[in-house]
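Hi support team,

I submitted a single chain yesterday and got back a structure, but I'm not sure I'm reading the token output correctly. Could someone confirm the output below corresponds to the sequence I sent? I've pasted both exactly as they appear in my results page.

Thanks,
R.
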Amino acid sequence: MYRDKRIVVVMPAYNAAKTLERTCEEIDRTLVDEIVLVDDASRDNTVAVAKDLGLHVVTHPKNRGYGGNQKTCYKTALSLGADIIVMVHPDYQYTPLLVPAIVPMIGNGIYDCVIASRILGGRAMQSGMPIYKYIANRFLTLAQNILMQSKLSEFHTGYRAFSRDLLLQLPLEENSDDFVFDNQMLSQVIYFGFEIGEISCPTKYFAEASSINFSRSCKYGLGCLQTATAFRLAKWGLRSSRVFDTAGAKLSTSKPAPD
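Hi R., thanks for writing in. Yes, this is the structure output for that exact sequence:
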């Protein structure tokens, strides 16, 4: 709890059994009221580990994809009465030690959304980010900032926090169930005029940390450019998009049953 606001950490999980405990050890349970793990049909014992750790577990019987997993994460958090929702990957690539720094940025009414940037601080490559990913990150971020008239240091971090009001207003059900969901969501945050804050975040690259391969990275990059283009066309009134439509489908707050 922070200033009478309920804090829920959500974890979109797939084969995270080896890193889940290390990740949870760094979550401040005096601040965080609930940890939700949504398992996307993992092939390892992620669910068993999560239950042993006392997490609120929801399972997908079939793999829905990273975006589909996040939709369930946010629905579940909202149904549990979350006022501030922080997405932490259970693969230990991003440290949960930053959660106490992120929460007040939303809890004090300064921002609606906070992203933890790997680029701020200039240590991304020193931390092991592959050079092709770094170059792609910088190119895509530049193109997106131009098309969306924004000034973010990066669009591609998976460490993010949101207010309840933001999650209820965005048409998140219109977004992809694949990796481009992240980018569509951040583009919606900008499109609908919510305030975004950034905080510098170290990151780790190691065998157990999740990562998409080169071909899927290319698909993701094209999806990011398509999203930014759709954003600009919608702003100019030249082409409508359900992703950027206030009438688009929003998340339900009905409570998914835990496994």
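A quick pointer for reading it: The beta strands are 7-13, 34-39, 56-59, 84-87, 113-117, 160-163, 196-200. Let us know if anything else looks off.

Best,
Support desk
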